[in-house]
Amino acid sequence: MTEREMQELLWKYAEELLNEKLKPHAKELSSAIGRLDLLFEDRRGNLLVVEVKKGVLRRGAIDQIQDYFGLVKNKYPDRAVELMVIANEIPRERKLALERLDCEPKEISEKRFRDVAREVGYRFKSEEAESSNRDERGTVASSSLADCPTQAQREDARQVQSDWPPMAEALDAAGRKLRRKYGTEIPRQALIDEVSSRGHYKKTSVIPSDFCYDRTNRGVDPNGIKLFKWRGRGLYEYVGPNYRYDGPIQRSPRSPAK
């Protein structure tokens, strides 16, 4: 399920997801400051700006919703404008920050989106495409073997993985698991917590950036096991050990590798 599919479900089936009857008003309204997701009209005739985020709500969404309030108010100066942010999970401190801005934080789990999709017959095209290409790319559970087309190569890959140090194995398992929840932006702390729960690891010893294709830390073997791409500000994308990466590499802290 993608963020865009979440938006489409909410646009078409707002009442089922929010238990409130809303009239669609505008979708993906754009300006120089960005593009808001959805604009509804509620039963009182007020405009409702809705921003939809997959996974855990990030801090930047709070700034976005303030900008979108200005965008809508500038376009409709005589209309009352209300705000809502929807995410699968919203940390408590961000809920409080949104409430102080008179913006309603709304958690809707991925399960709830799937339940509504099942009820109304909505099909997730992103997952149908993934299923149809599964023979090429492998399943999520076996993504580390996806680029091994022959049986002999698969056995080689399994042997390599069996020789990994425990930390690499733990991070690989954590990345595969958390990818299902966070998509392409897994928080560093979530990786640390997941790895710590799998073995006797001190949290300070779990360093995801040591296993990045596009970053290298001082003292880390540049040819060692790679599992992630760095997404900035403590976020990582799990891509697995056989990812083909030929882009730039940054040394810690920020200087380009030679």
Describe this structure as you would to a colleague.
This protein has 258 residues and is an alpha/beta fold. It has 2 domains: 3-125, Trna Endonuclease, Chain: A, domain 1; 140-251, no CATH class. The protein is built from 10 helices and 12 strands. The protein has helices at 3-12, 14-18, 60-75, 92-100, 110-120, 125-132, 134-137, 151-162, 166-182, 188-198, and strands at 23-27, 30-31, 34-35, 38-41, 47-56, 81-89, 103-107, 186-187, 215-216, 228-232, 235-238, 250-251. It has a 5-stranded mixed β-sheet with strand order 1-4-5-6-7. Helix 9 (166-182) crosses helix 10. The two termini are 39 Å apart.
Taken as a percent bin, the fraction of beta residues is: 15-25%
Task: State the end-to-end CA separation.
Answer: 39 Å
What is the alpha-carbon Rg in Å?
21 Å
- CATH topology tier name of the largest domain: Trna Endonuclease, Chain: A, domain 1
Topology overview:
Elements: H1 3-12, H2 14-18, E1 23-27, E2 30-31, E3 34-35, E4 38-41, E5 47-56, H3 60-75, E6 81-89, H4 92-100, E7 103-107, H5 110-120, H6 125-132, H7 134-137, H8 151-162, H9 166-182, E8 186-187, H10 188-198, E9 215-216, E10 228-232, E11 235-238, E12 250-251
Parallel strand pairs: 5-6, 6-7, 9-12
Antiparallel strand pairs: 1-4, 2-3, 4-5, 8-11, 10-11
